[in-house]
Amino acid sequence: MKLATLQTLMAAIEEGSLRGAARRIGTSQPALTKMIRELELELGTTLLHRTSRGVQATAQGRVLYEHALKATRELGQAVDEIHQMNGQMVGDLHISAVPVAVMLLIPELLRTFGQAYPEVRLRVSEELYVAQLQRLRTREVDITVGGIPDELPPGEFVIEPLIQTTMVPTARTGSRWLQARTLADLQEARWVFTGAHSNSGYARLLFESHGLKTPPVGAVVNSTLALLSLVATGDYVGLMPSQIASHPMALPYISVVPIAERGYPLTIGAILRSDTVPSPLLRNVLTHLHRAAHQVGDAT
């Protein structure tokens, strides 16, 4: 089974047509059709459903596609790492980051790292904590920058702390909940929880840390935009990093509830898988993240 043959199958599945796949890899349609047919004969199974509208992967084709995708990705990473070991910083790196990291750390990382290594392609996606860890586990991202929770499985990840933040309660400007002076005053408010379900999120941890009952769940979101939109326009309370709550773009719409208790303290750090040795490229990204964090610390 040749890599080039697997790449033709991948192209056909991704393009949804043999003509599009042939155009993409730079060969004729009959030649591509022959390669896929030979692969099907080798495996003794049908890999593609052919219809008048194009092609679709069979169940067997989908299994082969997923493994081929992983294999080609890892081969590409191996080639990049060999170049990096030889001093040539090239390749791709995918970073997922929580909003406060996107706001405070990522711009400086892109500036300094981009100047030092212009041939490296950095991809940044903004995500909340739960989605980050899942994508890190499945190797869809190389590194995540987010809140470091207490319940991380021991030994699964390598953690490098970067900056500190405090999750503070916020409400719409003019909201009645801004009159609250203690956390207990907010127990009857409808809260926006962040995470995959109502049992997750920092709001629950904040109330539990003060020996209080978890407040009613008004909504559960896994998006910063949804959190901001609900809090800014509805009768909700939600926890946000203090740096986002006090940002000039947010100030006209939301305010920090002035309760006596301190908000929920949170360490933002870089999280990597522990089962892989960081590449030279990844180690350099970590160095630039620490520089960006140091600059944030100096500014505050």
From TrEMBL:
Alphabetical list of InterPro entries matching this protein: HTH-type_LysR_regulators, LysR_HTH_N, LysR_subst-bd, WH-like_DNA-bd_sf, WH_DNA-bd_sf
HTH lysR-type domain: which residues? 1-58
Q: Which UniProt keywords apply?
A: DNA-binding, Transcription, Transcription regulation
Q: Does the keyword Transcription apply?
A: yes
Q: Does the keyword Nucleus apply?
A: no
Family of the protein in this entry: Belongs to the LysR transcriptional regulatory family.
Q: What is this protein's name?
A: LysR family transcriptional regulator
Supply the source organism's classification: Bacteria, Pseudomonadati, Pseudomonadota, Betaproteobacteria, Burkholderiales
